Amino acid sequence: MIEPHAPAPPGTRPPWAGPPRLPVRPGTGRFLVLAGVFVCAACGLVYELELVALASYLIGDSVTQASVVLSVMVFAMGLGSLAAKRLRPHAAAGFGAIEALLALVGGSSALALYAVFAWTGDWGGMWAHGPRALLVAFSLTIGLLIGAEVPLLMELIQRIRRQDAGGAVADLFAADYVGALVGGLAFPFLLLPLLGQLSSALITGAVNAVVGGALVLGLFRGDLSRRARWLLVIANITVLGILASAAVLVDDFERAARHAVYGRDVRVAIQTDVQEVVITGGTDGRPLDLFLDGRLRVGGRDARRYHEALVHPAMSGEHTRVLILGGGDGLAAREVLRHPGVHRVDVVEVDPEVVRLAREDPALSRLNGDAYDDTRVHVMTDDAFRWLRLAPPETYDVVISDLPDPGITASTKLYSQEFYGLARRALTPHGRLAVHAGPVSSRPRVFWTADATLRSAGLRTAPYRVSGRDSGFTAGPDRSTRPTRAPQDWGFILAAREERPVLRLGTAEGAPRPETLTQTGLTADARAAEETRIGGLGASTVLHPRY
User: Fold this and answer.
1) Last residue of a domain, one of 231, 260, 289
2) Annotated binding site for S-methyl-5'-thioadenosine
3) Residues labelled catalytic
4) What is the rounded distance in angstroms from the CA atom of residue 393 to the CA atom of residue 52?
5) Is the pTM value of this prediction over 0.70?
6) What is the pLDDT of residues 353-380, one digit of tens each?
């Protein structure tokens, strides 16, 4: 590559630098540049984490999304550093322009991504184009701009006071890495819980624009022509105006986008410490839907069929003490409490706000039959894996695993060999474990991997599936509620310690009769599930997830 100027001999100024023209002492100026590096690095990492968090929320599979965003960004940073070498003769103007553009792109990235998601539908089938391509485009653009900062900042530091290259690099990277640390900690612990994803990105962009513009216009204005100064002022004012306007309208935008995603019937929309919870319908005869982090977890049209299929086969036998893992909505507890002989039901739910809504929301509490008002029900707020590690052995006759789909990265440990080993330990010798393992027809490999994992933990299994009467309810990561996109069935696995369990509905005296299931249909559905079996699959573990 041909440089625009020949390199200067060591210890001398490059020919384009000229004498420094600073409004402050060199030591103060150098400190201000390093402070600017600190702030810009913090903003850059917030942009990266914002893209990872939003992509994981909208698309699912957080490991894949983090890998895509971070790898593309790091690659682009290298390209940006190479490209910025040609801007070194105009380091101050170049840095100011780059920071204004970075503030605009990074600050608006979350807004643009969520808008495309909300108004174009599900991301799951759009890997090669559409919203997924937009995610890569933002990652690439932000990475290019962040990478371009480094050589320009190095030149600005050397403009103030010449020093050996190693010392300058050490100072620059120290400020950069400390800023990245602050940004990385501020995002999950301060920005996200207080401001949310959209406002966090917008405010970060505004800070980026202010600091970048102030550093160049305040410290290096002598290096800029009058025209360049005015262009930079206009650019920064425009960027700040756009970000400020978006911040003012962000609440209206969120409401409109939420209606586009969930429909016009949104009654509850809250961001808890764990997840976003949205409830639609449930009044005036409209079916209630409960979404957790964008995933439909309770569909009023088919909720009874799903929970009857999950709970009733496991309750055919001794069921004095029952453990429900997940199921904070109370619907699994409702089905358990229909069976006579139940003395205690322990519900382990990680999000207390879901339990509160299940108790207090009139439509949801009506749907779960006011299960939490029953004195036999006891709620423990904890992660299911952590709670099982401390659970006394051979305590429960029935364990119901009503957890998010195994295809979601955050849930893979809850479908691991280690987890099922802990669940097996909590069962009595003749106890039974019921597991929701995702749809069979659309994701058979995931379903049969769960079966192989259960067997690897020393459990005997009886897989079965139940077709949905209404395809609007999916317990998996598919966010679309359109009939053409939602899974057509739910897959379950009944497991036991001693011998392969028999799939049957309750036959004991007083056992409730399911409203949506029959023994004939359950047997036929089990045979249908068996026809999809995939052999030779390995067990999924915490360190080697296979979903």
Assistant:
1) 260
2) 275, 349, 383-384
3) 402
4) 39
5) yes
6) 999 999 999 999 999 999 999 999 999 9
